[in-house]
């Protein structure tokens, strides 16, 4: 049995293959199958209004709260391919249903790669046949096959009393030269209703993937799926389920942040002292997306003026004369005025902690994780797509 | 008489000096004086809620629609300096009023430079005295003295029948290592009420400076001031005034875009086919601020998928299946699907024109100017502030 990943929980098999979608010749298709006895599932998808064809297919599939299989391809997003793209995504779903002998509606489809290129369906068809032959304890191989510009595969797991949760993930936000997207698959052998799974997944993603903000971009393909086999026979409480799902999501989010393209700094931004958690999140996101702030982080520059200039534009309650900023717990700005020694704070380490108090005395608080804006980010993302 | 700039219209004098605020030893203070016979004026300021002390002073000064002088310093933003910062900005105002013999409330103050450093008031005081001695036809010198990381001074003018408009500007958005801010001064010898000036200035800035969006950041100090001396004796119609003020604003905005830090591409984004001009502006801004799109522009990469992914997140009406994208007037995406030859479009030139039709058939349209995201942008903005 796997020690981590999607085949760590009982009741799941996986397969990976090289279908020839990626020009590199690396593995580019994966399949995850839930062998039951239960098939409850939940999913969250991109909020982008331009959605890839596989997202449309998967949204329909999850509507009844059940999934038995998820097929993945990397190297091609199957996004913005018109009616043909929709047909190809539906064909992938049908082929997998036939291969693993389930209903069409029990299959979700996830794709990641370049937008606007037609899927090579001959390769995909042969790939799905190979995936059907290769099912087994292959979570690690599946995690490798969904990678695009990821430099390492991302897997996680957590063991509870008699049950467990496993996960794999790739990408983060829109990070790479049209070859990114965040795809995450979470498996558990707990027994849980689709409602319970949905609650656990939404609670976990809200504070993990949703607050991991590298460049503010949102892919057309982002998909996080949670499937429960019930194979452990254990039905955890909602709280226990929430906690376990949160743990693997947090672990995968950490790995995504650490492997983000061109990253030299991991930056954690906490905003407090504003009207609500939503306002705090607005302000934290505004700061996390500010290029001048991100460049300063790249330069290990304790330039707190940029923090003030950025949060001053945020949709959040604030007292403009009572804003405080802390870098690595050292005050650099108090009451919107520089603190002694502010320019000498050491930000040379890889991890930088930024805390902003908007000064209203309000209870709102939120944390966002982001990265710096580096030369490598520009280099990777300016490379020619074709 | 100057051939362009703020002393091109009759009734204005300017001065520049080196007060020693900038470590470089370059000129760092300027003064513009309206000798009348009229003193009507208008101004627009940063929308940032964290505002520099000089902005507070200038907002109060313009409240009665009159200004007789504007003093500028570069090298120090006098922002986030608490009560002392407010006192220093007020002291600058008072010193200038004494020097040029006007009321305190007739003087506006503009500062640009690093946030969170106290102004060296001894230098500033001596500088103001020198400015008072040096008043004359010195628009060009004043334009040079307000530069921070600008590589060239920015001046503009337009001549009408018997009257004219002149302008100087510096910076653009928040572009440089804490040393930016957009400051613009516009002068005219037309006779115009402060209401007419206000209308002309707001109409012009809405479609020039407000749609020039380099990195989405907004300075604590941005200020655009328009003063009318009435020295020509000509009272133009509102339409004539609007047109002339728009022309100099557009000219200065072009110069700001061309001189933006690290720029290798000038990108013009037009969005149409959505519910309103405001929605079109939202979508154009969202695209203009998308780092992945900006990196693609740097790489001359016709990666239209990033355009779709970016506008799909915008707060604008769209038909997700009917979006069209044109690069330099060539269709690269029609009905949300790649157009033939899309990957071969030549974007190697400096100017790139991007047009996006959101496909609803709506009348909304807007244009935003932005730049690419280059290595130099990261380099310039990651340099240590202190």
UniProtKB/TrEMBL annotation, chains A, B:
Pathway: Amino-acid biosynthesis; L-arginine biosynthesis; L-ornithine and N-acetyl-L-glutamate from L-glutamate and N(2)-acetyl-L-ornithine (cyclic): step 1/1; Amino-acid biosynthesis; L-arginine biosynthesis; N(2)-acetyl-L-ornithine from L-glutamate: step 1/4. It comes from Corynebacterium breve. The gene is argJ. The lineage of its organism: Bacteria, Bacillati, Actinomycetota, Actinomycetes, Mycobacteriales. The record marks 112-113 as: Involved in the stabilization of negative charge on the oxyanion by the formation of the oxyanion hole. Substrate binds at residues 148, 170, 181, 261, 381, 386. Coiled coil: none annotated. Gene3D superfamilies: ArgJ beta chain, C-terminal domain (3.10.20.340), L-amino peptidase D-ALA esterase/amidase (3.60.70.12). This is Arginine biosynthesis bifunctional protein ArgJ. PANTHER family: ARGININE BIOSYNTHESIS BIFUNCTIONAL PROTEIN ARGJ (PTHR23100), ARGININE BIOSYNTHESIS BIFUNCTIONAL PROTEIN ARGJ, MITOCHONDRIAL (PTHR23100:SF0). Its main location: cytoplasm. The keyword Plastid does not apply. The record marks 180-181 as: Cleavage. The active site is at 181 (nucleophile).
């Amino acid at each position: 049995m796997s020690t981590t990943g999607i085949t760590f929980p009982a009741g799941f098999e996986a397969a990976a293959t090289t279908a020839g979608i990626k020009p590199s010749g690396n593995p580019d298709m994966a399949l995850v199958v839930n062998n039951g006895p239960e098939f409850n599932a939940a999913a969250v998808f991109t909020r982008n209004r331009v959605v890839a064809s596989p997202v449309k297919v998967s949204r329909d599939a999850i509507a009844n709260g059940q999934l038995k299989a998820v097929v993945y391809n990397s190297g091609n997003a199957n996004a913005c391919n018109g009616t043909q793209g929709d047909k190809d995504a539906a064909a992938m779903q049908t082929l997998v249903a036939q291969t693993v002998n389930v209903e069409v509606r029990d299959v979700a489809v996830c794709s990641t790669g370049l937008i606007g290129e037609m899927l090579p369906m001959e390769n995909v068809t042969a790939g799905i046949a190979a995936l059907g032959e290769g099912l087994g304890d292959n979570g690690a191989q599946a995690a490798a096959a969904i990678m695009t510009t990821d430099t390492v595969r991302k897997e996680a797991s957590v063991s509870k009393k008699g049950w467990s949760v496993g996960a794999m993930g790739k990408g983060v936000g829109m990070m790479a030269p049209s070859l990114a997207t965040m795809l995450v698959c979470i498996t558990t052998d707990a027994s849980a209703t689709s409602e319970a799974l949905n609650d656990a997944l939404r609670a976990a993603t809200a504070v993990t993937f949703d607050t991991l903000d590298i460049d503010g971009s949102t892919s057309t393909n982002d998909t996080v799926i949670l499937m429960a086999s019930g194979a452990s026979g254990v039905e955890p409480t909602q709280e226990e389920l929430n906690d376990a799902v949160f743990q693997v999501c947090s672990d995968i989010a950490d790995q995504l942040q650490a492997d983000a393209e061109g990253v030299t700094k991991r930056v954690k931004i906490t905003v407090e002292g504003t009207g609500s958690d939503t306002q705090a999140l607005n302000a934290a996101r505004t700061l996390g997306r500010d290029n001048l702030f991100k460049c300063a982080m790249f330069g290990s520059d304790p330039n707190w003026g940029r923090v003030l200039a950025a949060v001053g534009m945020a949709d959040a309650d604030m007292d403009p004369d009572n804003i405080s900023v802390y870098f690595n717990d050292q005050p650099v700005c108090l009451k919107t005025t520089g603190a002694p020694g502010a320019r000498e704070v050491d930000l040379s380490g890889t991890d930088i902690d930024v805390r902003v108090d908007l000064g209203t005395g309000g209870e709102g608080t939120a944390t966002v994780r982001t990265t710096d804006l580096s030369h490598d980010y520009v280099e990777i993302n300016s490379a020619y797509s074709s």
